[in-house]
Write a structure and sequence with these properties.
- The protein folds into two domains: about 60 residues, Fe,Mn superoxide dismutase (SOD) domain (Helix Hairpins, Orthogonal Bundle), CATH 1.10.287.990; about 110 residues, 3-Layer(bab) Sandwich (minor pseudopilin epsh fold), CATH 3.55.40.20.
- The protein has about 210 residues and is mainly alpha-helical.
- The longest helix has about 30 residues.
- About 50% of the residues lie in helices and about 10% in strands.
- It is built from seven helices and two strands.
- It starts with about 30 loop residues before the first helix and ends in a 7-residue tail after the last helix.
- It is globular.
- β1 and β2 form a beta hairpin.
- A two-stranded antiparallel ribbon has the order 1-2.
- The structure holds manganese (II) ion.
- The site of manganese (II) ion has 3 residues, from α1.
């Protein structure tokens, strides 16, 4: 097992990096306590449950509830990841400093100016439909930042994941050849996977961290 790998169903609620009252008056102790201890905790519990449910499905070779568990996995996994980041990107008023050299460089390079970035980020966060997040993300494929809105937490990803193997299941990918038999397409597709490239992408994703044993 990788030294830092989190085993199935073993996620833990990370402690807040500061006391519950230290973001006052901007975020009250009561809000922060509920948000961290109840809401974030529920995502951690839901993620552990989904991973355990999927482990059982693999053991029983019974994927009847795959859509339910995958939805739970994405919703709670993304909720856990985003909240874990959220706590650490806040600090008591007056202690968070100014945008760093690299942050400023990449913001200016792509968004044109810090003010333009700030307006887009705030407006994107404001305009998310329903519940969600404004997210500044580094896009490793294009080597630049981007601002995204996320509805709920996921739809249907886990943020910070890097694609290693992808299967296009839009009808345009198979309909002429397989009509509505998506499973037959996927079974056949499996035989043309380039595992050398999958391995290369995995090594690339490690990016110097966590070398393979
Ligand atoms: Mn939240």
């Amino acid at each position: 097992m990788q030294p830092n790998m989190i085993p199935v169903g073993q996620h833990k609620l990370p402690p807040l990096p500061y006391p519950y009252n230290s973001l006052e008056p901007i975020i009250s102790r009561r809000t922060l306590t509920l948000h961290h201890d109840k809401h974030h905790k529920a995502y951690v519990d839901g993620l552990n449950k989904a991973e355990t449910g999927l482990e059982q499905a693999r053991q029983n070779n019974n994927f009847e509830y795959i859509k339910y568990w995958e939805n739970e996995l994405a919703f709670n996994g993304s909720g856990h990841i985003l909240h874990s980041i959220f706590w650490t990107i806040m600090a008591p008023q007056g202690t968070g400093g100014k945008p760093g050299q690299n942050t400023l460089f990449h913001i200016n390079q792509y968004f044109g100016s810090f003010n333009a970035f700030k307006e887009q980020f705030k407006t994107a966060s404001e305009k998310v439909e329903g519940s969600g997040w404004g997210i500044l993300t580094w896009q490793p494929t294009w080597k630049r930042l981007e601002i995204l809105m996320a509805e709920k937490h996921q739809n249907l990803t886990q943020w910070s994941g890097i694609p290693i193997l992808v299967c296009d299941t839009w009808e345009h990918a198979y309909y002429l050849d397989y009509q509505n038999n998506r499973r037959k397409y996927i079974d056949s597709w499996w035989d043309i996977v380039n595992w050398y490239e999958v391995e290369r992408r995995l090594l690339m994703a490690f990016n110097g961290q966590v070398p393979l044993k």
